[in-house]
Amino acid sequence: MTQREAAVASEIRRIAREELTLDWDGADGEEMAGRLDSLALLSLVVAVEDRYRVKITEEEAMVTRSLADLARLVAGKADA
Predict the structure, then answer these.
(1) CA-CA distance, 64 to 60, in Å (whole number)?
(2) Residue 31 confidence (pLDDT)
(3) Residue 79 burial (10 A CB sphere; 0-12, 13-18, 19+)
(4) Could you give the domains of the chain?
(5) Is 40 exposed, middle or buried, given 0-12, 13-18 or 19+ CB atoms closer than 10 A?
(6) Do 29 and 68 meet the contact criterion of CB atoms below 8 Å apart?
(7) H or E segment and range at residue 8
(8) Which of 5, 19, 29, 74 is the most buried (most CB within 10 A)?
(9) What local confidence, expressed as pLDDT, does residue 67 receive?
(10) How far is CA 56 from CA 23, 25, 50, 70, in A?
(11) Alpha-carbon span 58 to 2, nearest angstrom
């Protein structure tokens, strides 16, 4: 994970804890679907889209399994 991706992952964890009050520690390689229900996942994705002003397509969301995947995707879109 690059420094930029690590910073994005850290911000995603903060959003989950502080803004969405999710009980989730956000380990980089852990599958998010295993720890968050579908509504929590959707809320997290929307909050991340709003924070970084990016759009995550349904296809991209379907292949994003872990926090590291999401951070990589968001960092790439935000930097583009």
Answers:
(1) 6
(2) 87
(3) exposed
(4) 3-75 (1.10.1200.10)
(5) middle
(6) yes
(7) helix 3-14
(8) 74
(9) 94
(10) 23, 22, 11, 10
(11) 25
